[in-house]
Specification:
Number of domains: 1
Low-confidence stretches: 1-13, 18-32
InterPro entries: Class_I_gatase-like, Peptidase_S51, Peptidase_S51_cyanophycinase
CATH topology: Rossmann fold
Number of helices: 8
Organism: Roseivirga echinicomitans
Mean pLDDT: 91
Function: Exopeptidase that catalyzes the hydrolytic cleavage of multi-L-arginyl-poly-L-aspartic acid (cyanophycin; a water-insoluble reserve polymer) into aspartate-arginine dipeptides.
Shape: globular
CATH class: Alpha Beta
Keywords: Hydrolase, Protease, Serine protease, Signal
Largest sheet: 8 strands, mixed
Oligomer: single chain
CATH architecture: 3-Layer(aba) Sandwich
GO molecular function, one term: peptidyl-dipeptidase activity
Distance between the termini: 54 Å
């Protein structure tokens, strides 16, 4: 009974925040030109990284954060840790909604999403997250929040969903392999993500988990897209086409510069792939 009562109080809290924010933004929606993305490569999130996310979002001045834990099978744990990273760094206006696949969200829940100053998507399975939101009013509300100038942030699976072409983690040709051991065509599965980044593909846990073969394959198969590997405890802040690196490790960007690959069977080959390795404070363009 106590748990149910607490959940009810929380729901009323976050819905009230959404309603208040909606009133505040109604007259100024036309002034927004798109929000920011804060894309974390997974792993531990030091206070410096969380504070960068908070500061970039502007949430210290106004608004609230909202955790969307649908990527994980342990949403209560994701909500607890997701909220704690904000409250530990001075942000008390933070809540969460765990939408369930197939259930119709209420108008109040959707208002809470579209009016959140910062939406945070924890890790888990990017496929599970998209199964819940793809083609729904929830996805539309997330986009509406972004288009109002708010921040969409995520880590691990929450990073993978940011691009239009989303790495699922599945190997199509070698489903029993534990890692991507070869560089070949047609092995790395892609699906539709949220689509905030249309000219790049995002990979995460990149250096720690040695995901070079996976991203190199995608670089050659998608020569007109940049392929971005974000390591753990590191993030990129995306504002339009401008990207800034923050965190403890590195971000690698592969660019085939529009050149089609060479093929021998399913083996991929290419010349002059551009590789850049960026550190904290470095900036680059998605163009």
């Amino acid at each position: 009974m106590k748990k149910t009562y607490s959940a009810l109080l929380f729901s009323l809290f976050i819905v009230a925040l959404g309603a208040c924010s909606q009133k505040e933004t109604t007259t100024s929606e036309t002034t927004y030109s798109g929000g920011k993305l804060f894309i974390i490569g997974g792993g531990s999130r030091p206070a410096s990284l969380i504070n960068s996310m908070i500061d970039e979002s502007g949430i210290r001045e106004a608004g609230y954060a909202l955790v969307l834990p649908m990527a994980t099978t342990l949403p209560d744990r994701a909500i607890e840790s997701g909220k704690k990273q904000f409250t530990d760094n001075g942000i008390l206006a933070v809540g969460a909604i765990n939408f369930i696949e197939g259930e119709t969200p209420t108008k109040a829940q959707l208002d809470s999403v579209r009016n959140a100053k910062l939406i945070y998507i924890p890790g888990g399975s990017q496929n599970r997250f998209m199964d819940v939101v793809a083609g729904t009013e929830i996805e539309k509300a997330i986009w509406e929040s972004f288009n109002k100038g708010n921040m969409i942030a995520g880590t691990s699976a929450g990073a993978a969903v940011m691009s239009e072409k989303m790495i699922t983690g599945t190997q199509l040709l070698r489903p029993d392999d534990s890692g991507f051991k070869v560089i070949e065509q047609g092995n790395t599965d892609l699906a539709d993500g949220l689509g905030f980044i249309k000219n790049a593909i995002i990979d995460q846990h990149f250096v720690v988990r040695s995901r070079f073969n996976r991203l190199l394959s995608l670089t050659m198969e998608n020569p007109n897209l940049k392929c971005i590997g974000i390591d753990e405890s590191t993030a990129i802040v995306v504002s339009g086409d401008k990207v800034k690196v923050v965190g403890l490790s590195q971000v690698l960007v592969f660019d085939a510069q529009g050149k089609a690959p060479n093929l021998q069977g399913v083996k991929l080959g290419a010349k002059d792939i551009n590789l850049s390795i960026y550190l904290d404070g470095d900036e680059f363009s998605l163009n």
